[in-house]
Amino acid sequence: MDFFKKAEAIKDELIEIRRDIHENPELGFEEYRTSQKIKDFLDKEGIPYKTVANTGVCALIEGGAVSKDNIKTIALRGDIDALPLKDNKSCIYSSKVEGKMHACGHDAHTTILLGAAKILNSIKSELKGNVKLLFEPAEETVGGARYMIKEGVLEEPYVDAVIGLHVSENIEAGKIGIKKDVFNAASNPFTIKVKGKGGHGAHPEHTIDPVLIASNIIVTLQSVVSREIPPVYPAVITVGSIHGGTAQNIIPEEVEIKGIMRTMTAEHREYVKKRLVEISKGIATSLRGEVEIDIEESYPCLYNDDNMVELLKTTALPVVGKENIINLQHPSMGVESFAYFSMERPAVFYFLGSANFEKGINHPAHSNLFDIDEKCIPIGVAIQCNTAFEYLTRE
After folding, report:
1. Coiled-coil segments, which residues (predicted)?
2. Is the pTM for the entire model greater than 0.85?
3. pLDDT value at residue 394
4. Which domains does the chain have, with CATH numbers?
């Protein structure tokens, strides 16, 4: 079945949807207009759905060629939220909402999922299983996927596998990037409050200097990655914020350090968290101070299932060609809430090329000039459809 031809036939409709969503961005758990637009589209196509995770949507296409002995269900996911960023692009579909922008391509992800829904629903009598459609809110903030999972989107009917994608400004439109095993890092934001005893900067002997303690903690934390994690495993400890003090000649009572940890295995994730606590407490104690430590449990690692990766490579072949399937060598240190789905079911996540270097469409995600080459939209639709169809029809 030529899904790319079907996707090209509705390309204009999909571009209109994408541009409308792009013009009207909404932040996490505020996506009421976007959610309603999704529901209106599903209503028009006769696809049943329910509201989940406040502004998320879970829809179901029931296959008509289902064997009662082996009913499979595959889920396709698209995230729907935007970012708190001013859109500085000069084009007819720039954001109309001040300070909000689809700067990460979620408008394209939503559109691609709607396109796949339309096509798969049109051939549902030929589907040997079910397709769930997961429109995820708040991917950029708290990870709407985990709330959707808690509300049972992977059950009734039981989901056997999940597919997700993300547009990439680093890959030319017409190509995809994929890899087995770990695709995205796990994240643990942290806050360390260093407490000392304030006083005059000219008389440090009467104080317990939290600035000095904080400085030692920051420097020593870098030794965890360079000297305690094997060099073949990527890991990052970044301190992005330091606050303390009010004047040059005053030693403050407290300094606050904030940062992130990124790791690629569950073992290293636990190890780095443990060492952050040990180092911070040890240095603070040795320098007569105290620390309060808060480590957040943010997104886990995103794991790609080997069999699902091979399936997607096969189903992408007729859409983009073998020469346009890039086997990525390294995982991304960025995080992705699709990881929550990948922790629950066999999953595959890939980068959909959206850049056009000749036209200058290659600004980084989360920047105020981000855009996509819209020719990637029917490509994404076709790959999603073909992968879902083949998964349900294979023995």
Report:
1. none
2. yes
3. 83
4. 3-183+301-393 (3.40.630.10), 186-295 (3.30.70.360)
